[in-house]
Amino acid sequence: MKEFAQRYHDLLTGEYKGINLTRITTFEDFFQKQIVDSVLPLEVSKVFKKAIDDTKVVVDVGFGGGFPILPLAYLFPEKKFVGFEARAKKAKVVQEIAEKLGLKNVKCYHHRIETVNIDIPVVITFKAVGTIENFIPLIKYREQTSVFFYKGPSFYELEELEPTEKKWEVIEELFYDLEGTDGRTLIGLKNRTVPRGTLKKEIKNLVNLSQLI
User: Fold this and answer.
1) In the 3-class helix/strand/coil scheme, how is the chain assigned residue by residue?
2) CB-based contact 189:164 (threshold 8 Å)
3) Pairing of strands 122-127, 57-61
4) Do residues 95 and 65 touch, judged by C-beta distance below 8 A?
5) Which residues, other chains included, contact 39 with Cβ-Cβ below 8 Å and sequence gap of 6+?
């Protein structure tokens, strides 16, 4: 993992230095706060690990500089990873970085999650992106969907899960340590039901996820 992280860091601090994909400059901090932070849920959460193991497709929303999509794609070359980023330049650059890192299982798009119809079973990740209450209603799903939010240590002081629980079951709530930080919180949700034949009008103008893989 360190060899992958070193090549990634070299690209961010070299060829792509002017793009501002991460504020972290030293390799030690980059490895701990970006790479390890992206993949640590696989070690500390059996629920997250099983969800990733069981799915064929992972969608990462708001990946910024490529986290967690690129480290996860590196660990799971047999799975498809699709990234949606609202900033076009970052989507383009992270796709270039993925190719230069030899990741053939990554496709990055300048899309917002609310413009996509989730028409295949999938795991979705959000890392340090907005609030759960704001983002979860934007997901238009037609299949079984699990969603994991990478959150900070103060999650319960800032957000509530109750507004989402009518349509989404909480499958993971986990606080864990990350060296050099005050800790992390992982929140996992799973849709309680899958709509059947009632969203034709709503999905008419959406792009199907299956077309983006």
Assistant:
1) CHHHHHHHHHHHHCCCHHHCCCCCCCHHHHHHHHHHHHHHHHHHCHHHHHHHHHCCEEEEECCCCCCCHHHHHHHCCCCEEEEECCCHHHHHHHHHHHHHCCCCCEEEECCCHHHEEECCCEEEEEECCCCHHHHHHHCEECCCEEEEEEECCCHHHHCCCHHHCCCEEEEEEEEECCCCCCCEEEEEEEECCCCCCCCHHHHCCCEEHHHCC
2) yes
3) parallel
4) no
5) 1, 68, 71, 72, 75
> Given CA atoms 126, 130, 136, 139 in this order, what sign does their dihedral have?
negative
- Tokens 């993992």, residue? 1
Computed from CA positions of residues 56, 143, 135, 84, in that sequence, does the dihedral angle turn out positive or negative? positive
Predicted local confidence at residue 125, as pLDDT: 97
Tens of pLDDT along the chain (213 residues)? 999 999 999 999 888 887 777 777 789 999 999 999 999 999 999 999 999 999 999 999 999 899 999 999 999 999 999 999 999 999 999 999 999 999 999 999 999 999 999 999 999 999 988 899 999 999 999 889 999 999 999 999 999 898 888 899 999 999 999 998 999 999 999 999 887 765 566 667 899 999 999
Structure tokens at 179: 């060296």
Residue 33 and residue 116: Cα distance in Å, rounded? Answer: 30
